[in-house]
Amino acid sequence: MESRHHERWSHRRHQLAHLLKPHSHESAQKVDSALESSAEGMRALWLSLAVLGATAVLQAAVVLLSGSVALLGDTVHNAADALTALPLAVAFVLGRRAATRRFTYGYGRAEDLAGIVIVLTIAASAALAAYESVDRLLHPRDIAHPGVVALAAVLGFIGNEWVARLRIRVGRRIGSAALVADGLHARTDGFTSLAVLVGAGGVALGWRAADPLVGLAITVAILLVLKDAAREVFRRLMDSVDPAVVDTGEVALRAVPGVLRVTELRMRWIGHGLRAEVTVEVDGGLDLRAAHDVAVRAEHALRHAVPRLTAALVHTDPAPGPGAEDPHRLLAHHAGSPPG
Description:
The protein has 340 residues and is mainly alpha-helical. Helix content is 67%, strand content 9%. It has 10 helices and 3 strands, in the order H-H-H-H-H-H-H-H-H-E-E-H-E. The chain has helices at residues 2-20, 27-66, 69-83, 85-95, 110-138, 146-174, 177-204, 210-237, 243-254, 288-305; strands at residues 261-270, 273-282, 309-318. Strand 1 (261-270) and strand 2 (273-282) form a beta hairpin. The protein is elongated and about 90 Å long.
């Protein structure tokens, strides 16, 4: 009786919450949310492409004028960073497509493939910067107009920092690991632009080796960015989820009336959203409809507790009773065996 009263009060409290803050879990709203996330990501990409593209063009003109290999490395890196917007844009467009009989989870994984392209692009820019810097150390040449080089370096820093803030802010808001990684990439590019400023100052003071040495320092910075970006992309490809998110989900599930125990909770990112697979233990005496109601309440609680969770598949297990058979005995011979 007390349990029924608690459930009735929980239901009324939730109805009141809906009146104060209405929401829906209908599939149409899920699609609208995905489209909105992709559209916001696309706007961030095109803005960053325009800013970094303009920065790279201006820097390229100064490279031709001055012959600075440090600025060349920074220019190549900025151009590569601008071009990473293209695979991400393709991924965002693909992510809008509905699931099919072949791609039953949709096309959200396209963004993870774009992340691989970004990592390869960063690696290529590091290789080019290293080659040009070593070549300039072996074959020293003077650079012209160090003051103009310094100005181009400052412009590079400003452009990259603006783009970094935009990409990181939008990427975190829409749940895009690739966009956040690209924002971190742009932020480091900004600091490498300041390194070019140091090299130009060294050349102005008569230290000709300052320019290629700064070019090598930029290469090291690019490699550090490569490590961080590769780690982020690898984690997403391997279905990594923040353990704190899993903890939050388990706490919400255990608070659901009728849930005796949470035996399994798995989550994975698909595009900008999380999907969950849940197994909860319920009273073995419940009929099918009552057990289903517990599963629905569990999914509902999980959707409220975990940000960016788009779907959850909840399975209910009967709690073991005295002398009761294992409800999974039919599957016992499949334990540990590969599917197929």
